[in-house]
């Protein structure tokens, strides 16, 4: 007996099905980015975005917005660490 492991990792069949569901909307130019609320141009790079705790899909977002959100979190963590370092010093 074989078990599918891709679905349990969050990027399996259901993710692909959701992406397929949004694809016609994005390609028609009617989708709004879940992060910046600006329209996603047909043919633009986009991703099916998750909420920050990755518990649910929030819809399509620009790839740049998605990446920026991840980076902002990393930067905030880095700055928080830097602030403590400065205080210690
Ligand atoms: Zn955006």
Automatic annotation (TrEMBL):
From the UniProt record, list the coiled-coil ranges.
none
> Which SUPFAM superfamilies does its entry note?
His-Me finger endonucleases (SSF54060)
Pfam families found in the cross-reference section = Endonuclease_7
User: What InterPro entries does this protein's entry cite?
Assistant: Endonuclease_7, Endonuclease_7_sf, His-Me_finger_sf
- What protein does this entry describe? HNH endonuclease
